[in-house]
């Protein structure tokens, strides 16, 4: 199957899974916006999702997409390194049209993967998984808003999340337009447009997450009403 065996097919899989993950981030961002206005509203959203069957199915689908994206990223990186051979050790100046993010996607991806594991531990394990398994005294499952406050009251976690968000910004601003290019949706005119759209969209998207972290860390979060 060309999607698995050919380099172009692998890039298509990377692009499609990446777009799906950006769409999930958009949904996740929209859900978190409720935390800016009311703790009760955020907890209502958490209760609507929780460990319900549709949320569990969505989580499994998301995990599959993330695994495919990560595995294919390593495969494509290994392919590119083999294709370049000894040339990768030669000292050369970066061309102006080649972004810093494009040359460091693997490093950014590793940082993002580590941040994802931290996020799963801090929130998924203490919220959805705790509810699903019926864990006793699981604060996150009973009060998601209170759990966010507790996590981001720790400066170490807040700083790590902000670093994660910055890495995501570099990764997604490059990945956004690159995906459109791989899928054949950009030409000479639309390439610059997709790049501009990607920067604006990703900046707004991740800016919301960054402001959320800072608001809870600095004590500007709303109350439970």
From TrEMBL:
Keyword Transferase set for record: no
UniProt-listed SUPFAM superfamilies: Fumarate reductase respiratory complex transmembrane subunits (SSF81343)
Residues spanning the membrane: 12-33, 53-77, 98-121, 156-177, 198-220
Keywords, in A-Z order: Membrane, Transmembrane, Transmembrane helix
Top-level lineage group: Bacteria
InterPro entries linked: Cytochrome_b-558, SQR/QFR_C/D
NCBIfam families cross-referenced by the UniProt entry: sdhC_b558_fam
Protein name: Succinate dehydrogenase cytochrome b subunit
Organism (species): Hallella faecis
């Amino acid at each position: 199957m060309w999607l698995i065996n050919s380099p172009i097919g692998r890039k298509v899989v990377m692009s499609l899974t990446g777009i799906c993950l950006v769409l999930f981030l958009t949904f996740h961002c929209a859900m978190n916006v409720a935390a800016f206005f009311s703790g009760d509203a955020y907890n209502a959203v958490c209760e609507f999702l929780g460990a319900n069957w549709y949320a569990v199915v969505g989580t499994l689908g998301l995990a599959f997409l993330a695994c495919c994206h990560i595995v294919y990223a390593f495969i494509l990186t290994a392919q590119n390194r083999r294709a370049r051979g000894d040339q990768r050790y030669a000292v050369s100046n970066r061309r102006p049209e080649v972004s810093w993010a494009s040359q460091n996607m693997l490093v950014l991806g590793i940082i993002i993967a580590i941040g994802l594991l931290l996020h799963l531990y801090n929130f998924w394990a203490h919220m959805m998984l705790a509810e699903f398994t019926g864990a006793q005294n699981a604060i996150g499952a009973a009060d998601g808003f209170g759990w966010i406050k507790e996590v981001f009251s720790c400066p170490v976690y807040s700083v790590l999340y902000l670093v994660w968000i910055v890495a995501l910004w570099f990764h997604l601003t490059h990945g956004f337009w690159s995906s459109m290019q791989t899928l054949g949706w950009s030409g000479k005119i639309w390439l610059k447009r997709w790049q501009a759209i990607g920067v604006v969209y990703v900046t707004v998207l991740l800016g919301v997450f960054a402001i959320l972290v800072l608001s809870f860390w600095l004590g500007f979060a709303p109350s439970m009403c």
